[in-house]
Amino acid sequence: MNRWREAFRNQRVLNVAHRGARAFAPESTLVAIERAAEFGADAIEIDVHHSRDEYIVVVHDDTLTRCSNVASVFPSTSEYFVSNFSLEQLQSLDAGSWFIEQIKLGSSASETYVQEITESERSELLPPSVCASISIGTRIPTLVECLELARDLNLLVNVEIKSLPRMYPRLAVNVVDTVRQIDCELMVLVSSFDHRQLITVRELSEEMATGVLTGSRIAKPDEYLRLLKADAYHPCCNGDFDSMGLGSIDGTVDRDTVESVQAIGAGVQPWTVNDLSSISKLLDAGVSGIISDFPNRVAAKLLDNSKGWIGLP
Considering only CA atoms, which of 61, 132, 59 is closest in space to residue 100? Predict the structure, then answer.
């Protein structure tokens, strides 16, 4: 059985590191995956795009400017979409130094998660071993590289297909083919905001798990998951797009959604949940997993969880 499905059905709460342990390493890189394992994650969440020559690469944004030195390496280029560059060009970029510079400045390029690091966590931020790993030249990895490393570290992998707005032809097909080629179907869950991609994955593979990503409320998520033959519901719990009630007037988490989805054997894994109070509320509501930039915080709360549902067996 797919290991995600097994965890959902056995009511084990999964600690899912968002883009790797991105609060402590350059997001979406191999070192971020390694750090996720160090912090006790059960799984990693990574995002995939096509290169110009249709290799599957792991990058979050549609463009390369936030997390690489692409503008200095290719100064005459007018558009910096991932799909405008070959794999060789993408892997010539430095995908790590931006993180080191932002840490030194005490902020991140466009988000605040680095600023959210507590004093007690700061000692984990730049130990010598990590500094050595994040030298100039940290590369954008391929999906194959990430899957192989995750397998070596006994991590499950949530592969998010970033098909919108670029509408990559054949991306879902190539993801399934790649996962099969290295025999990783039972450790992979594919999610997407473009739910057509999930239909394609299910048509190609019964073994691979799929997850419905959403930034808005779905009226009957259990029925919708049945329609798509999906295995998980991934609602946003972040800021203006919180759809589970953390930001509601009374602060009541939507337990009905959690219970209805779990009643059909599927999982509920909210994203992106970083503060300890929100993690606690969602665990109390019985969610199946927490997707977080801070897998160390989720691990700590899982250890405190009186239900004792701690990660993978």
Answer: 132
- CA distances 117 to 97, 122, 221, 242, 274, Å, are 19, 6, 34, 22, 10
In this predicted structure, the answer to whether residue 55 has a pLDDT above a threshold of 60 is: yes
Q: What's the mean pLDDT when you consider all of the chain?
A: 91
Position 284 in a domain:
yes
Q: Residue 101's pLDDT is what?
A: 80
Q: 8 or 133: which carries more pLDDT confidence?
A: 8
Range of the domain at 207: 3-63+141-304
Tally of structural domains, the chain: 1
Overall average pLDDT of the 226-242 stretch: 96
CB 289 within 8 A of CB 312: no
Residue 259's CB is within 10 A of a number of other CB atoms, namely: 13
> Does a structural domain hold residue 247?
yes
Q: For 137, left (φ over 0), alpha (ψ -120 to 50), or beta?
A: left
**Rounded to 5, what percent of the chain is helix, strand, coil?**
40, 15, 45
| pLDDT, tens digit (0-9, with 9 covering 90-100), for 146-201 | 999 999 999 999 999 999 999 999 999 999 999 999 999 999 999 999 999 999 99
151 found inside a domain: yes
Answer whether 244's CB lies under 8 Å from 261's CB. Answer: no
Q: Residue 38 maps to which CATH number?
A: 3.20.20.190
pLDDT value of residue 124: 72
* Token duo for residue 305: 């969880």
- Cα separation of 202 and 205, whole Å? 5
- Asked whether residue 131 is domain-assigned, the answer is no
